[in-house]
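Chain X:
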Amino acid sequence: MELPRVVYENLPYGYFLASGALFSLGDSWPLLFSGAVFYLAACIVLVQRSAHRRRDKYKHKQKRVWLPELIYEFLPYAFSAVGILLLMISNSNIVQFIAFSLMIWAIRNLICRHNNRTRKQGLF
């Protein structure tokens, strides 16, 4: 079975929406666990697609990264999850600012990563 391209490309974002809906419905453990599973599934799908669609597949193996590649790939999603969790459980302005900053940092990293991986290789 093959999904239409519109559905296939937006499926991880649907997982994110399902995760958010489950987190906002209540505080029971089954809802929180299901929301975490949907969030993790969306992260895994997006990381796998990014790895498969890279235009700089051989270039990134030469760089030395201070983190293992698996942790590096999931780090923006972890920042975002921690930011969302802090927003949900805290009423302090400082903690909410830190949570917002974590989410902005995660979005910035994902945008930069996307731009670096999809642009064509330059001459230099």
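Chain Y:
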Amino acid sequence: MYETIQFIHSYWAYLVLFLLLIASFNAIIGYAANKEYSATNFRIALFTLIVSHIQLLIGFVLYFTAPYFQAWSQEGMGGVMKDSVLRLYNVEHPLVMIIAIALITIGYSKHKKKLTSRPKFKMLAIFYGFALVAMLSRIPWNAWFD
């Protein structure tokens, strides 16, 4: 079961990153070029939100079924925090990804309240951009390229 969930989580992450990259650049370009906010822009932002929340749910299931999770009871907090790999998988990656998805959610929610195009793009660019940077900072790259 763990391998299947890990496979889904790993490959769904490509979709999340791709859509977040598209949504971020779409918002930056829309803001810089002073474009009109359209239904397509709304769909890109919404689909990014949905896909990222699905990834979060898959990640929660993976977290509690992963062998790394057993380290909490075997090593304790001190042991997990001293080991960089355990710290990455048990603390840093989950925490930063939750923060990134919270940023996506906040950005999406705030952009809907704006009445004109430029502020809508600005909210999406700021929050989706920070979420993208946060996600890229805590991806276990060595596991992706093995």
